Amino acid sequence: MFNSKKFKGNKFKYVIYYSLLAVIIVFIVNEYSSQLKYEHIKYSDFINYINQNKISNVQISKDRLIITPKDKDTAHKGKILYTERVDDQNLIKKLNDAKVQYEGVSQESSLMRSLFTNWILPLSIIMFFGSILMGRLDKKMGSGVMSFGKNTAKIYAENETGVNFSDVAGQEEAKESLIEIVDFLHNSQKYVSIGAKLPKGALLVGPPGTGKTLLAKAVAGEAKVPFFSISGSAFVEMFVGMGASRVRDLFKQAQEKAPCIVFIDEIDAIGKSRGGNVSGNDEREQTLNQLLAEMDGFDSSKGVVILAATNRPEVLDKALLRPGRFDRRVIVDRPDLKGRESILKVHTKGVKVSEDVDLNSIAKSTPGAVGADLANMINEAALRAVKNGREEVIQEDLEESVEVVMAGKEKKDRILSDAEKRAVAFHEVGHALVAALLKHTDPVHKITIVPRTMGALGYTMQLPTEEKYLVSKEEMIDKICVMLGGRSAEEVELNSISTGASNDIERATETARSMVTMYGMTDRFDMMGLESIKDRYLDGRPVQNCSAETAAIIDDETLNIIKECHEKARSIIKENKDLLIKISESLIEKETLMGEEFMDIIKEYNDKKQETQDTKL
Ligand code: ADP
């Protein structure tokens, strides 16, 4: 646990302020209470009171007389009186005559007593409570979160992250690149003595949720060094100069704790390219300049390594990427089938799962999912198991949680009318039938007409038999046919069309357009590139780079592909209308059909057809 120097300095200041405040409070209270308790009188009044027999006791010190009146309800409201001692030879006689009790008190002892009761005791009590309060504050500040700079930005600091490379699954290449950094942090002397320049920083690039933060923590965990983490956006504030001072602070603290890892998440928030920004952003530029200056300035042989993460590497300023700064780039991409399976394995470690759980099939059904999605799925499955009163997670829990993460929860309270249900069933079976009857398609895994919260009234799930890295033109065409199969079935059987195909239309158009603009799959444009992908690690938006005239032709070509595929899907459905009706009826009855049930119906139907043909012959 760290205690920042800054806080220690502040603490000293707080103690001074607090003590001053305590003294002032005690002074005011003393003044006030002595005014309430004592009253000054003239010596002549004192003599008068003796003569009038109004006094019961007098304490005589070197220069004061403290007088206790007999009757508490006198004009002095029961207060104790005092007056200065004057040179009165007859005082003792007067007291004796009036039968007043008197005693002498030493000046020192009365001073000591009042010092103790009026000052030392109350101040000690106040300081005691103050120290308890301070201790609490201290604990809070030392628990890993520190105030950073003169502002509210938070840097998270951990002495031991407790994360190892074994906790990060499916990112073998990334781990390999980072092992070197671990070794360097472990044995920096080995590198220094041979004269090697040590790496200052590495940039982790990849889509959100693929484990970049986790990897950075694992590097710190493996090297057993402290881990500082701050988000790039925390540097940028409204006030110019604030971000730069934070950068300075960060590097100062990191060097004090060396060897250590400093992790800057979302570095694109400060590291955006400086040129071409018309409006200009002084604060961001200053912060970036400071970061560059600090990276150049610090001595890497001390063992400070800066890791930064981004999912938009293309917007980063080139200056950040040159040697001596973030000169290493580690790609942390979406995991493949094997990667997904091992991530699932890592996350099921702490969860009780049944022995017959098949993580491979779950990995197969989650193409495109990142580590964070998979971790979420395992958790959803565990929650479902508890909800259903089970003590361990079974395959069904996992399969359901995949669907929850991908399509949302089942919406049982959404009641479809019979006509709507029929339309949805025919639509979904349309997709499934085209998928089953075309050659270059993935097998159907499940068809369902149970509505889900993410908008789908039903869906057909296809699962690839193996992970594919290349997609052929035939496969793309067949994929579009499957997407358009839903609407085709509505047309053929119901003679009416509905809004249910909007998502299919969007996806089919996107696929057809990419065939024209990016994959060179039309004769018209041959191998000309007309679009490129922006923000590859985020949503992967295509950006057109062609003239408006060409764009119009692209639209024509796209339309041609779609029309062709629609026609193909429609004719398949027409030819197999009986089968469509049979499967749809079964789906309306059961609401969900698994891949095998679906294939069994097709097989049974084909066998029967064959039989009748044989008997006719
Ligand atoms: P990023 O920084 O890339 O956005 P994180 O590192 O924050 O992603 O990942 C979020 C969570 O997802 C992690 O805490 C972890 O539980 C899980 N996760 C992501 N990738 C992996 C992986 N490769 N192996 C194991 N868990 C992972």
TrEMBL record:
Zn(2+) binds at residues 427, 431, 504. Its cofactor is Zn(2+). It is a multi-pass membrane protein. The keyword Hydrolase applies. ATP binds at residues 206-213. The active site is at residue 428. SMART domains: AAA (SM00382). It is an enzyme of class 3 (hydrolase). In the C-terminal section; belongs to the peptidase M41 family. Belongs to the AAA ATPase family. Homohexamer. Acts as a processive, ATP-dependent zinc metallopeptidase for both cytoplasmic and membrane proteins. Plays a role in the quality control of integral membrane proteins. This is ATP-dependent zinc metalloprotease FtsH. The lineage of its organism: Bacteria, Bacillati, Bacillota, Clostridia, Eubacteriales. The gene is ftsH4.
